[in-house]
Amino acid sequence: MEAHHLALSSHITLSFFLAILPSSYCTDDARFTECSRPFECGRAKNVSYPFWGGNRPEHCGHQGFKLECYYYYEYPIIKFEELEFLILNINESQNNMAIARLDLWDGSCPQTSLNTVLNYSIFDYAPTVLNITLFYGCPPQVKTLIPVQNRFTCSLEGSDANNNAYFVNESLARIHILEPEKCSGKIRVPISRNAIINESAGVVPALHEALNQGFEVN
């Protein structure tokens, strides 16, 4: 009889402690399981903190590091303001990554004239970055000192018939458009200083290759 009461008492005691145990233990275990899963997308493998997205909930990363994945791109995408960027490489040991503007991927004719803007609270340009300026919708008679190898054609959706375009490298300050106001748009785009725009191969393919190489941010 006493043994029966002892067993009943032990059962009640155990039930009491189970009832008062904080549910956070189970929650923490679930979060650990969720955050132990890496983000993977195309060529990107084993991406972890501070990045999140996909099967990694927001609490597994840091604000501003959300990644998205689309089956038709082989790289994950990160968004700053209105622009989306392909993440070409993440170097965890150097705390930097190489990114490229999605709207200029395999092309140099964006749909909107937006300068490249980062989230400077968490990212900054690496010393390897060089800026170029692309001018669009310039009439044939625009006065320019830009050599012919820096010119290409670009038909912007919804723009006028002028499809003359130019790019200016910041290291060649003496080369500039004298009447930039006659061009319908311009954007500033970072590229890698190691990217060589070889005009002998044709300015458009060379420019595309430089844009596709992307640039580094810390």
From TrEMBL:
Protein name, entry field: Wall-associated receptor kinase galacturonan-binding domain-containing protein
InterPro entries: WAK_GUB
PANTHER family, per database record: LEAF RUST 10 DISEASE-RESISTANCE LOCUS RECEPTOR-LIKE PROTEIN KINASE-LIKE 2.7 ISOFORM X1, OS01G0690200 PROTEIN
Keywords in alphabetical order: Signal
Wall-associated receptor kinase galacturonan-binding domain ranges (all copies): 35-101
Source species: Quercus lobata
GO cellular component terms, semicolon-separated: membrane
Single GO MF annotation: polysaccharide binding
Signal peptide range in chain numbering: 1-26
Subcellular location: Membrane
Membrane topology: Single-pass membrane protein
Signal is among the record's keywords: yes
